[in-house]
Structures are given as C-alpha cells and as structure tokens.
Amino acid sequence: MPHTVVFSDQAPAPIGPYSQAIQAGNTIYVSGQIALDAQSGQLVGNGEVTEETHQVMRNLQAVLDAAGFTLRDVVKCSIFVKDLGNFGIINEIYGTYFPADYAPARETVEVSRLPKDVQVEISCIAVK
pLDDT tens-digit profile of 39-48? Predict the structure, then answer.
C-alpha cells in the first residue's frame, strides 16, 4: 500500500531520520512527540511534567491536523514516561484531550530515558 509522509510546521521537526507521521490509506501513524516548541525548537516546561504533557498533546494535534485527522480519530496511543510516579498528572491532562466517550486504547510504560531527557513522549495511531 502506498504511503504519504505527513509534515506540520506547527509541530517540531523530526530530530532524527524519521517522519512526524506516515499516512497509509485511512490510517495515520504519528511518531512519538515530546515537549518541543515548533517555532523555537526548544523544550517547553523546564522539566515540569504538566507543561510537557500539554505541549506533547498540542504537537500530536498539529500533526493530526496536517493530515485532516482529529483527536477523535485516534484509536491507539503509546505513552512513555521517565517516572511512573507522574502517571496521575499525565493521565489527568491526557483525559482532557481524550474524554471517556472516545478515549483510545493505550499503554503507559516507564522507561529509563527519553530524547532530550524529557518526562513524557506520546505516539498515536488514528483511523478515519
């Protein structure tokens, strides 16, 4: 199946050899987003998980928007956290973007380190 690279200038440019997202048919696979500001390329939140999580969600929205998708189209998220002790905060913020009536499937995994030493990274898959 042919696929299309998706790019949004409203989300941070990739910091490695990958695409922000790939669309294949009616499915989009969004790469893990971290709390980088699209315009400055700088980290947002100074290591504070609340601000980082909001920025990550805004970045996911921007990439989805570029392909004509919305958060309502998301069917699966993967959340990677540096400290699972922050799960409650991340989960609360995440829930403001994904109300219970259309919350996607997901997993949350604690990892030893994330790019740029951020606290949280989230990727998603969406289907129209």
Answer: 999 999 888 9
